[in-house]
Amino acid sequence: MKLYTYFRSSAAYRARIALNLKGLPYDMESIHLTRGGGRQHSPEYRAVNPQGRVPALGLDDGDVLIQSLAIIEYLDEIHPEPPLLPADPVARAHVRALAHAIACDIHPLNNTSPLFYLKNQLKHEQAEINTWYAHWVTVGFEAVEALLRPGPYAFGDRVTIADVCLVPQVANARRFNVPLDKFPKIVAVDAACLKLAAFDKARPENQPDAE
Ligand SMILES: N[C@@H](CCC(=O)N[C@@H](CS)C(=O)NCC(=O)O)C(=O)O
Question: Which residue, 25, 73, 153, 166, is most buried by CB atoms nearer than 10 A?
Fold first, then answer.
């Protein structure tokens, strides 16, 4: 398999964690999201992923999967151990809700292209953009903090897709200096996950394309 990735991409970080948790080998191709206007917009990469986003996962038969949560659930289906979703349907729905609260509600507001649009098209100052960023992370994390179950992980004693989404979002928040003091449970889950080799290996700073 080949993962189209970028070290700073939190969506690609999710896919890297899941591949590592499953113990699956994969090649990586770095798609630089900012240099030269962003390689994700090149015709070559649009042929891989017409959305022009990372991650994308090239399968051995030539098919390409996109959208980190679809990729992760695919991996969970073909390599069920260790499971990334609980067996119980209600618990599964709760875990998915936590993952979606991050991947669908927090992350899109703080993604590269909306931030560039605020700056380049709408002409906002960087300080205003940072305020926007911190606002949506903080509001989102208030809900996530309330939704977390007793740990050490987001939903108990097993790692799930909720953790796979939470850790990269925390890394993003730290990168933009969003205060996390109000979120002791989030910080504790992040610390517990990062003790695991699968998470540590997937960190942005541990990627071959890290700058
Ligand atoms: N919902 C998508 C989000 C993918 C996404 O937006 N990735 C970002 C990096 S974290 C990206 O490629 N951004 C490029 C851009 O906005 O131009 C997923 O979960 O895979």
Answer: 166
| pTM for the whole structure | 0.97
112, 120, 176: which to mutate for ligand 1, most atoms within 8 A of CB? 112
State whether the beta carbon of 49 lies less than 6 angstroms from ligand 1: no
The model's pLDDT over 122-174, given as tens digits with 9 standing for 90+, comes to 999 999 999 999 999 999 999 999 999 999 999 999 999 999 999 999 999 99
**Whole-number Å distance between alpha carbons of 70 and 138:** 26
Mutate to test the pocket of ligand 1, among 29, 53, 107 (most ligand atoms within 8 A of CB): 53
The protein residue whose alpha carbon is closest to atom 10 in ligand 1 is 9
98-126: burial string, b at 16+ Cβ within 10 Å, e else: bbebbbeebbeebbbeebeebeeeeebee
